[in-house]
Amino acid sequence: MTSIKTPSTERPTPPDSTPAVALHSGTSDLRALVLNNLRQSGIYVALVVIVALFAVLTDGVLLSPGNITNIVLQYSYILVLAIGMVILIIGGHIDLSVGSVVALTGAVSAVLVIQQGHPWWIGVVAALVVGVAVGAWHGFWVAYAGIPAFIVTLAGMLLFRGLTLQVLDNISLSPFPAEYQKVAAGFLNGLLGGQGFDAFTLLIGALAVAGYAVSGFRTRLARIRYQQPVESFPLFVARVVLVGAVLMYFAWQLAHARGLPIVLIILAVLVLVYGLLTRRTVFGRQVYAIGGNLSAAALSGVKVRTVNFWMFVNMGFLAAVAGVIYSSRSNGAQPAAGNMFELDAIAAAFIGGAAVTGGVGTVVGAMVGGLIMAVMSNGMQLMGIDQSTQSVVKGLVLLVAVAFDVYNKRRAGTAR
Amino acid sequence: MDDTILEMRGITKTFPGVTALEDVSLAVRRGEIHAICGENGAGKSTLMKVLSGVHPSGSYDGEILFDGKPMQFRGIRDSEANGIVIIHQELALVPYLSIAENLFLGNERRGRGGLIDWNKANAEAAELLASVGLHENPVTPVIQLGVGKQQLVEIAKALSKKVRLLILDEPTAALNDVDSAHLLGLLRQLKEQGITCIMISHKLNEITAIADSTTVIRDGRTVETLDMRADDVNQQRIIRGMVGRDIESFYPDRVSSPGEEVLRIEDWSVRHPTQERMVVEGVSVSVRAGEVVGIAGLMGAGRTELAMSVFGRSYGRDISGKLFVHGREVNARTVAEAIDNGIAYVTEDRKRYGLNLIDDVRRNVSAAALDRLARLGWVNGNEEIKVAEASRKEMNIRTPSVMAVVGKLSGGNQQKVVLSKWLFTDPDVLILDEPTRGIDVGAKYEIYTIINRLVAAGKAVIVISSELPELLGMCDRIYTLAAGRITGEKPVGEATQESLMELMTKDKELVG
C-alpha cells in the first residue's frame, strides 16, 4: 500500500484557507484515530472479541454457514425494535411496551389471516396500521399530555398485553399460510444458480461492498472539497477493504447455507433508511437536539411536541414490523409472544453507546449492540449453557458496557 | 471600637478563567444588620458562599475569623455547626413536606430507638413559628404557603439551628410590600435578640431603613464600608460606591444612524407562570434599525421575563399587549413564529437555554435555522460545515475545528457560537440578554465589536444588562426597568450611571 501516497494535504488548496490548513493534514495515525473514537470503536472491538471468543469456544460452529443464517433469523426482530428504541432514547424517552405491541400486532394479523382467511398481505397491512395507532396513542400522551414516557409505555405494556389476550381469546393461533411464513423464514436464492452455493447472494454482497466503497469515496471527495479533515488515503482504502472482506465473508457463508434471508433484506433496508434519517434529515437532527438540551431546542424553534409525537409513531410502526416478522417466524400468534423484547431492545441501544441522559446514540451502534447480545445468546446456547446463566452473563455485559461508557465520558470531560 | 463577630481578610477566589473575588475584606460587628450591595456579578453571592463553606476551605485564599477564631469550613455543615446559616435567594424547602418536616430536615428530632418523635418535633416547630410571627399549623405542607411565609419558615429553620450569624441573599426580591415589611420587622426583632445578620440586597430604600452598616462590592473587590448612622450616607451615596468605575475607551466607537422602527412592544404584561403576581406590567419599548437600545434592570426586575415572553411566548401566562415588526402587528405564539418574524433572542444562560453542550459547533450554529440548509427535509451536511466555518472565521470562534464539542469551549467562545446560531436565522432584531455575562474582558470587547457590526448592517439590537458602563458604552437609548415596569427612558447622552441606578432601584409606589 506504500505505492499509493497521495495524502489529501498535497492537493492544491485555495490560498484563503491558510488558517485551517493544519486541520486537513489527515489523521494518518491509526492509534490517534482509535483513541479519538474509543467510544465508537469500543463496541466494534467488543463485537469482534465476542465473536472470536465464541468461535473458539464452539469450535467454529458459531461461524458455520447454517448458524450465521440462524442468528439472522433469530434476532432480526430485536434489531428492528432496537432501531426505534435508540431513536427514542436519543430523544430522551423510552418505550417499555414494544413487547406487548409485537404480540398485539402479530395477534391482529393472525386473527385476520388464520381465523378469517384473508390474504396474507391484509394481515401485514393491518398489523402495521395497529402499530402506528399504538404509537400515536403513546405519542399523544407523552407529547401533548406531558406524561413521562416511562409511565405512558408502562401503562401501554399492560394495556396492549391485555388487548392481545382479548384479540386472541386466550388461545394460540397457527399456522400461517406459506406466503406469510416467507417474511421471516423465506430466502431469495437460486435466481442465478451456482455450484453448491447461491450466486445471487454473492452478487448482492458484492453490490453492497461496491455501494459502501463508492458512497465512502464520494463523502470523502465532498469533505475535501469543503476543506474538512479526512483520514489519509491508505487508511481509507484499508477501511473499505476490511469492511468489504467482512461483508463478503458473511455473504459467502450465507450463500453456502440457504441463500439470502428475506428478513435480512428488510433489516438492511431499515438500517440504511433510519441511519440516513437520523444523521441527515431535519427530523433526525431535531431528535438529537431535544435529547441533548430540551430547553435550548425549544428556544431554537424546534417543535418539540410534534417531534416527540412522531418518534413514538415511528416506534409503533417498527414494533409492528417486528410483530409481523416474529409471528411469521413462530408461524402463529401466542398470548405471551414478545415478552421481555423491550428489555433486549433497550439493552441493544445502551450497549451500542446511547446515553441514559439522551442526545447520544446511533442506529448503527444499536445494531452492533444488538449483535453483541445476539452472538452471546447464540454462542451460549450452542455451548449448552443453561438459561439462568445466560441471563446472568447478559445482565453483567449490559452493566459493564454502560459503566465503561460513563467512565469514558467522565475521563473525556476532565481531560481538557 | 465595637465588638467584631466576623472578619474576612484578603479573600481571593478564582474560577477557571475568571477572578470572582480579589482581596475582599469584610468586618461585621456583633448584633448588627450588615448590608452588602453591588451590581449583579460583583461577587456578593460568591463571598457568602465562601463564608458558608459552599466553596470549601482551600478553594480560596485568605482567612475567616469568627468570634476571633480562625475558621476552616469544609462544607455547609461545618459553618452551621458554628451558628452561621445562609438563606439562599431560591428557597431550599421541599414543597411536599410539612413545615415541621422542613424545619428539621437533616436535623430530625429523634425519640427512642432512633425513630422520629413527631409530637416533639411539631411542638418545637410551633414554638419556632411563633418566634417568627408565622401562625400556621406545623403539619401544613410548605407548598400551600406563599413565598413570604416560606421565607419565614426558612428563618425559623435557621433559628432551630441556633443561628448566631444569619445570611440572607436577596430576601425580599420575590416578596410583595406587606411581606417585605413584615420580614424587615422580623430582622429588627432578631437583632434585639442578639442575632447578627448579613443581608444582600438591591433595594436601597430597605438598606437605608434597616442596615447599621453597608459594604459595597464592585468587580470582586471591596469598595468601602459605610456606617449608616453617619449623616451623609443616603441612597445616592451608596449608588456612587456601586457604580464608580471608569468606562474610558473600553467600548469600540460607533457612528449611530438609526433608521426606521423595526420592533415595537406596546403595553406588554405578563403573569408569573405559577404565582399570581405580574412579572411585567404595561411595558412599551421600541427599537429602530441601526440602533442599540438598552434595558437596564436589577435581578428580578423582569428583564428576561419580558424578552422571553416576547420571543414566542416562551415565558409566563396571561400575556397581553401588542407586538409590531416593521409597523405590522404580529402574533408570535411560538418560537418558530418569532424566528419567522425576524426576532432572535440570545439567552442570558447559554448553558441551559442556548446550547446543546454535548454536540459540536457546527450543529449548534445551524440549530435554529436548519430548514435553510435543507431541501425536502434532507440536511446538506457540507453546506452546514461551510456555514459553520464562515461563522468561525467571522466571529473568531477559537476552536480546533467546527466538529469540536461546544461544552469544551471557553465561555466567550460559547457565546460567539450562540450569536452565530442566531445570526444564521437572519434576524431583523436581536434581543441580547446579558451578552457578556461570565466572559473575560478580551471576549467582551469582541462581542461589542460584533454588535457594532450588526448595527452597521442595519439590524436593530436590544441589549439587556445590569452592567451600567456596558449599557452607557454601547447603547443609543436606555430604558430602565424596575419591578416589571419601565421607570425611565433616556438617550445615552443624558444618562449617567447614578441617574440610571436611581431609576432602577425606584420602588413601585414611587412610579405610580
TrEMBL record, chain A:
The chain crosses the membrane at residues 41-62, 68-89, 96-114, 120-140, 147-168, 199-221, 233-252, 258-277, 307-326, 346-375. It comes from Micromonospora lupini str. Lupac 08. It comes from the Bacteria. This is Xylose transport system permease protein XylH. GO terms for molecular function: transmembrane transporter activity. Its main location: membrane. Part of the binding-protein-dependent transport system for D-xylose. Probably responsible for the translocation of the substrate across the membrane. It is a multi-pass membrane protein. Keywords: Cell inner membrane, Cell membrane, Membrane, Sugar transport, Transmembrane, Transmembrane helix, Transport. One of its GO terms (cellular component) is plasma membrane. NCBIfam families: GguB. Pfam families: BPD_transp_2. It is found in: Cell membrane. Residues 1-21 are annotated as: Disordered. Coiled coil: none annotated. Residues 1-11 have a biased composition (Polar residues). CDD domains: TM_PBP1_transp_AraH_like (cd06579).
UniProtKB/TrEMBL annotation, chain B:
GO terms for molecular function: ATP binding; ATP hydrolysis activity. One of its GO terms (cellular component) is plasma membrane. The keyword Manganese does not apply. This is Monosaccharide-transporting ATPase. NCBIfam families: GguA. Residues 6-244, 263-508 form the ABC transporter domain. InterPro entries: AAA+_ATPase, ABC_carbohydrate_import_ATPase, ABC_transporter-like_ATP-bd, ABC_transporter-like_CS, L-arabinose_ABC_transporter, P-loop_NTPase. Its EC number is 3.6.3.17. The lineage of its organism: Bacteria, Bacillati, Actinomycetota, Actinomycetes, Micromonosporales. PROSITE patterns: ABC_TRANSPORTER_1, ABC_TRANSPORTER_2. Coiled coil: none annotated. It comes from Micromonospora lupini str. Lupac 08. The keyword Transcription does not apply. Gene3D superfamilies: P-loop containing nucleotide triphosphate hydrolases (3.40.50.300). It is a peripheral membrane protein. It is found in: Cell membrane. Transmembrane segments: none annotated. Signal peptide: none annotated. Keywords: ATP-binding, Cell membrane, Hydrolase, Membrane, Nucleotide-binding, Repeat, Sugar transport, Translocase, Transport. SMART domains: AAA (SM00382).
